[in-house]
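Please, structure for the following, as tokens.
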Amino acid sequence: MQTKALAVDKGGMELGSHLLSGVSLPAAAVHEAQLEHNLAWMQRFAEAHGARLAPHGKTTMTPALFHRQLQAGAWGITLATAPQCRAAFGNGVTRLLMANQLVGQANMAIIASLIEQGATFYCVVDSHENVRQLGRFFAERGLNLSVLIEVGVTGGRCGCRNKLQILSLAEVIANQPALSLVGLEGYEGVVHGDDPENGIRDYAKQLVEVAVELEAAGRFSEASPIVTASGSAWYDVIAEAFQGAPLQGRFTPVLRPGCYVVHDHGLYREAQTAVLTRRPDLQQGLEPALEVFAQIQSLPEPGLAIVALGKRDIGHDQLPIALRRYREAGKPSQPLSVTGWEVTKIMDQHAFVRLSEGVEDVEVGDIVAFGASHPCLTFDKWRQLLLVDDQLTVKEQLVTCF
């Protein structure tokens, strides 16, 4: 994995520096006002639907943001791997939901150590063999491991493919003294097809029905077992399914969106538009909070600007979007136009930007703010991001732990 140090580190930049004059660019910035809006908005959404929020921490791997999420009311933090869990716990996160199978003795040893240190930890299982491996390992350590059965879909990723497999796996777990079955887990993002919305509604209904059946059979070891799903695109559909009568007062519904914390200018902006179309009662919605600022370094021919921004700086599963432009040392309140500008190609350290016809006020050194799609793939390129206020003054350095 390629990471990079921010050009201005703690020794080279004081808090209070200005993004348009006192920071070596490119730099990734998180806008504080939009961040705070998103934290509060998603927490209110979860609570209004009777659910807990366990944001997926792999999006940012930024402990300062984990703590803001927890302070806003999050129940815990979701992670994807044992080392991610270790990093989160080492930075004060004590309830960890690993929405993945725990495989391999080295990874099991990491988690055993966290449990011994007081972590509340959950992971998912979907096979008899993994259950036996986990049961043996944690029994030898004298520890109990809380697991959730993962419910998958045909052609999808991990997870049991049908109810028979789920019921069989629950019986195998019951025969492992070191394991406790505490709920069901799923991820609706693997549901595709010509009618994904109805497919996801059917999938969520299946999660609920199987959870109720397992509870009736006495398979869960907790009085209020967990039922959890939800990425950042279909959280409204999952929340509605979990809010239904079968779960109320008997289960702990947990939603796990991650990208909401900074949202984006691509994939999740489109997904949010769909959410607000499905749910017109929701107000305002999420706001993009993550941008990467970079400078024009060359104007080699008419209609073309080369910007010092590349694949090592910003996610590129969709090409970055030029949002605003400023003069170096200019005022944030006086942005310059980027109307019609289009990123046509991105290399390791360079972005090719096609300018609008007739533009004449562009200068080498101009600073352009870019938006990206899928924030996970921008965060993992930085060891630090900058939290900035409305005046683009640096308030905090947000250290990542990828």
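The chain has a mean pLDDT of 95. The chain is about 30% helix and 25% strand.
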